[in-house]
Amino acid sequence: MKASEVRDMTPDQLSDELLKLKKTQFNLRFQSASGQLEKVDQMRKVRRDIARIKTIQRQRAAEASKG
To answer: What CA–CA distance (Å, rounded) separates 28 from 50?
Structure first.
């Protein structure tokens, strides 16, 4: 997911996507612990997508508190 795609999302869409990614991350951690994880790079992608969404949410909150 690209940052430009995240910026185009509404706050509700961001929250939904964040929840989905956190569930995915949880499942990936279990797969990793049990040795069933096939795509090891997927954990990194999910972590970065979560960080992107949280960053955009914080930026929007900062803008809202300023103005």
So the answer is: 14
CB-based contact 14:53 (threshold 8 Å): yes
The pTM of the full predicted model, rounded to 2 decimals, is 0.90
| Integer Rg of the chain from CA | 14
Predicted confidence (pLDDT) per residue in 17-32, tens digit: 999 999 999 999 999 9
Q: How far apart are the first and last CA of the chain?
A: 29
Q: What is the dihedral of CA 54, 60, 66, 67, to 10 degrees?
A: -170
Buried b (16+ CB within 10 A) or exposed e, 21-60: beebeeebeebeeeeeeeeeeebeebeebbebbeebbeee
To which residue do tokens 């992608």 refer? Answer: 45
